[in-house]
Amino acid sequence: MRIRSSALAAVAALALSVAVPATTAHAGEEAGQAPRPGDIVSSEPSAFHPLPLQPTNTRAWKIHYNSTTADGASNVVSGTVIVPQDGRTGPRPLVTYAVGTVGMGDSCAPSNNLPYGTALEANLIQQLTLRGWAVVVTDYEGLGTPGVHTYTVGPSAGHAVLDAARAATRLPGTGLSASTPVGIMGYSQGGQASSWAAELQGSYAPELKVKGTATGGVPADLMKVADFNNGSYGSGLIFMAAAGQDAAFPELKLDSYLNAAGKVLVDGMKENCVAIDSIAGSFKRVSDLTTRNPLAQPDWQARLNQSRLGGTAPAAPVYQYHALGDELIPYAVGRRLRSEWCAKGANVEFDTILVGEHVSGVITHSLEAGNWLADRFADRSTHPNC
After folding, report:
1. Cβ atoms of residues 142 and 150 within 8 Å
2. Is the pLDDT of residue 2 over 50?
3. DSSP 3-state assignment of 94?
4. Is 70 exceeded by the pLDDT of residue 241?
5. SS3 assignment, position 371
6. Cα→Cα distances 168→89, 209, 306, 324, Å
């Protein structure tokens, strides 16, 4: 089914924390077997509300599942599985959905907000459940689980997105299975995560029946994005990203580069959500908050380049979209990713958003992205424009 009605704007609300009730361990853990990526560690009933108190005909679970860090170690990530209760008896598609930036504090995690209608992209997720699709939303590494969120660490995020799909297909009661067709979707931070999932899927999760990836506003090159935002109203993203990289790679020793004001800012970012973090960090230059620039150091450059996209052609088709007037992620960064994927033989359909900017792009193009995935689930022909 295709939906052509106007997209609802994503809800902007303060994140709320939620007490975690007793969880249920699953078979692999009980038997003492070595955990596989995507194995369920625990699950518990949850809920999905696009707006506060707005009912939906869905069933939801909060899950904890095994995944993999950027350096290949086992970790545990949380997330939410949502399945429409529409009477469908046959197989239904699954979308593994990567949210855009919500912040670094645990209270910002999607799984802590989807039950209360305070998740920023809940209306966009509802567009997918209204099509009859199941959706799994990862919280990413360190967001809602112990440790600092590894914000903008691409390989970690890609693993979390793919393992969320594995976990959803292994969760009893969902009606999903190993043969479930899977779509990958995300924008902004979620664009990085979904694009990394697309690049990794062929080697990391080849058993998933991935039909395609819809990805937008992709920060494909963190060095270029940092340079673009230095001193602008998006400069808080630089310091959030630095904290995220440092969380994944403690040898970077971010604290040793920060001056007193920088330490206060970054410490606060780790506890708060995007509205506060972006305001607190806006219109600051890296030189304002550091004693020396970490981005000029070879070890920092190497780790940031480890998150650079474009090195591997996605195994499944891609729909990539980017706003020409994007004021946070340069349009040229998105176009270069498209060119690099195309040069490697990827099946890419690229779409330029001519009217709008970064935040509006996820809303105005959500239906286009959903319709593209619907075509992939229906096994219709792709229309690459490399």
Report:
1. yes
2. no
3. strand
4. yes
5. helix
6. 17, 13, 28, 35
Do residues 294 and 242 lie in contact, with contact meaning Cβ atoms separated by under 8 Å?
yes
Partnered with residue 97 across adjacent β-strands are 137, 185
Give the separation between CA 238 and CA 292, rounded to whole angstroms.
15
- Cβ neighbors of 343 (< 8 A, separation 6 or more) are none
| Whole-number pLDDT of residue 112 | 97
Cα 10 from chain centroid?
16
Decide: helix, strand or coil at residue 193. Answer: helix
Distance CA 119, CA 123 (A): 9
At residue 25 the predicted structure's pLDDT band, cuts being 50, 70 and 90, is low
Identity of the residue numbered 151: Y
Helix, strand, coil content of the chain in percent (nearest 5): 40, 20, 45
5-20 pLDDT, tens per residue?
A: 333 333 333 232 333 3
> Token digits for 291?
């004693």
Share of the chain above pLDDT 70, in %: 92
In this structure, what DSSP letter does residue 258 have? B
CB-hemisphere CA count at 13 Å for 351? 19
pLDDT digits (tens, 9 = 90+) for 38-79: 999 999 999 999 999 898 999 999 999 999 999 999 999 999
- Give the chain's end-to-end CA distance (angstroms, integer): 28
Q: What is the mean pLDDT of the chain?
A: 92
List, in order of start, the domains of the chain with CATH numbers.
26-220+317-377 (3.40.50.1820), 222-306 (1.10.260.130)
Q: Measure Cα distances from 37 to 44, 276, 292, 338 in Å.
A: 19, 34, 39, 29
Q: What is the dihedral of CA 218, 298, 149, 196, to 10 degrees?
A: 30
Give the separation between CA 57 and CA 124, rounded to whole angstroms: 16
